[in-house]
Design goal:
With 114 residues, the chain is mostly helical. It contains five helices and two strands. The longest helix is centred in the middle third of the chain and has 22 residues. Keywords: Membrane, Transmembrane, Transmembrane helix.
Length: 114
């Protein structure tokens, strides 16, 4: 009796996996012998654009805040010091250099904060 319950539970878990796989869609194919075989669709990887955009916007606002709090000349000096450092510091200097968008954000923040 115990072996039948184990077999039944394994069939149930197999059916549940198949059902979850089919919830994202399925494809039906006709084999050469006339049998229709239904298989779950492969899940497509999606890029999460909204979190990436929020991260980039937050980073630009952070750079703008640093520019306002340190002053543009001091900020540029610090970035120049980073450019003379190691490879990682040079990458950081490239990322942290003043761009038009962060400069615009800094100008808008400067008028609001002062």
């Amino acid at each position: 009796m115990g072996e039948h319950i184990g077999e039944f539970r394994s069939r149930l878990s197999r059916l549940e996996r198949k059902y979850k796989g089919m919830s994202a869609g399925y494809d039906a194919k006709l084999r050469s012998d006339g049998l229709i075989v239904i298989t779950p669709r492969k899940a497509k990887r999606r890029v999460a654009w909204v979190p990436m955009a929020v991260f980039l916007l937050g980073f630009v606002v952070f750079k703008g805040f640093l520019m306002v709090s340190l002053g543009t000349s001091s900020y540029d000096e610090r970035v120049a010091r980073l450019q003379d450092g190691t490879g990682v510091e040079q990458v950081g200097a490239f990322v942290m250099q003043a761009d038009p968008l962060s400069t615009l954000v800094a100008n808008k923040m400067g008028t609001v904060l002062q």
